């Protein structure tokens, strides 16, 4: 699997539709209750799992996870 193929959609207040899409390749660490990623400015951000809405294989169009 290539991390470049995947994206994580998170709840992010203040952006259009309150959804931000994070390329999986930008994820730097996966922890027990959150994950960390580097944004376009190179700043590390922490995202708790309860904010994850969708995980998708953007190349094949498969949804691996969707929050109910």
Query: How many individual β-strands?
Result: 7
Distance between the first and last residues' Cα: 26 Å
Domains, number: 1
User: What's the pLDDT, averaged over the residues?
Assistant: 96
Overview of this structure, please?
The protein has one domain (3-66). It is 0% helix and 53% strand. It contains no helices and 7 strands. The chain has strands at 6-11, 19-23, 27-30, 34-38, 44-48, 52-57, 62-66. The chain has a 4-stranded antiparallel beta sheet, with no helix packed on it. Strands 3-4-5 form a 3-stranded antiparallel beta sheet, with no helix packed on it. Strand 3 (27-30) and strand 4 (34-38) form a beta hairpin. The chain is globular, with a radius of gyration of 12 Å.
Short description, anyone?
By secondary structure, the protein is an all-beta fold. Helix content is 0%, strand content 53%. The chain has strands at residues 6-11, 19-23, 27-30, 34-38, 44-48, 52-57, 62-66.
List the helices and strands and how they pair.
Layout: E1 6-11, E2 19-23, E3 27-30, E4 34-38, E5 44-48, E6 52-57, E7 62-66
Antiparallel strand pairs: 1-2, 1-6, 3-4, 4-5, 6-7
Which labels suit this protein?
mainly beta; 7 strands; globular; single chain; 68 residues; three-stranded antiparallel sheet
């Amino acid at each position: 699997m290539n991390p470049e193929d995947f994206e994580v959609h998170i709840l992010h207040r203040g952006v259009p539709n309150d959804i931000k899409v994070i390329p999986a390749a930008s994820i730097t660490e996966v922890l027990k209750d959150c994950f960390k990623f580097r944004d376009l400015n190179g700043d590390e951000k922490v995202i708790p799992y309860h904010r994850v809405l969708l995980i998708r294989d953007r190349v094949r169009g498969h949804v691996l996870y969707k929050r109910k």
